[in-house]
Each structure stands twice: as structure tokens, then as C-alpha cells.
Amino acid sequence: MKKILQISALLAFASLLFTACKNTEKQDLHTKEQSIEKQEESLEKDATTTEEHKPVVTSSTLCYRNEFVYKTDATKKDVVELLLTIKGDTVIGSYVWLPAEKDRRNGMLMGTIKDSVIDARYDFFQEGKQSKTTLKIYLKDTTAVIEGGAPELGLETTIAKINCDDFR
What we know:
Layout: H1 2-53, E1 59-69, E2 77-87, E3 90-98, E4 105-114, E5 117-126, E6 129-139, E7 143-148, E8 157-162
Antiparallel strand pairs: 1-2, 1-8, 2-3, 3-4, 4-5, 5-6, 6-7, 7-8
């Protein structure tokens, strides 16, 4: 009988120990889950805060084109085109002059934009020569005003804004 009491007491103690360990494990698990939830909330908050403080980088494409039809021959025209891609404060694009009867001028520009004014370096080919110059391009609601380069290059002009779907 004494042995049965000892065994019963031992089983009761083991059962209490097992239950206590299980409760501790549950408590540890619960504590870990709460900690993970807090970390996730913190990360979400940081991500939100970070997103709120990041500058929004917008990207847009602008297209401009003028056609100058010859007075003496309506089938001939000179064309000036400007295509700009703006991402944040960086601008890249092309500026092309396509005369009906002369050698064309093809060029690429790269620069920065601030307050609707682009300061750009323009690298171009014309009459078999490669040249470069700096340009200022003032973006208006319906036009782009281009200034810069030597007067004999004829780079300065005002070009009408068009829908980019109509470009070329």
C-alpha cells in the first residue's frame, strides 16, 4: 500500500510538473507571438514612416513637334521634334531637326529639371560632324522654349506640345 501511495504521489508530482512545463511553454509561445506581432507592427510603422518621408519620384514623357510646310511646295516640310523623359529631376531625350532638303540634325540630351526649366547637354550629329552644346529648355503648358547653342546652329525655337501617341 505504501508503494501505491508513493507511486500515486510520484505520478501526481509528474503530472503537475508536466502541466507546469506545458503552461510555461504556452506562456513562452504566447510571449514569442506577442513579440513577433510587436516587431511586425514596428516594421509596418517604419515602412509607413519611411514611405511618407521618401520623395515621390515621378516619371513622365513629354512630346513636342513643329512642322513647317514649304510655301512653294506643300509636299515638303521641315520638322522639329523634341522628346523628353523626366524621372525625378533627371531628364533624357532627343531633339531632332528633319529638313526636307538638307542634312538632318539628330541629337540626344541629358540634364536636370528644376521649376520647369531643363539645363541639358545636347550631343548631336549634323552634316557628318559630331558636336555638343548646352541648352536651356523652358517647359510651358503648351510649348517648350529652347535656348542655347551658337546662333548659326539654329537650335533656338519654340515647339508645340503634342500627345505622345501622335509622335512620329
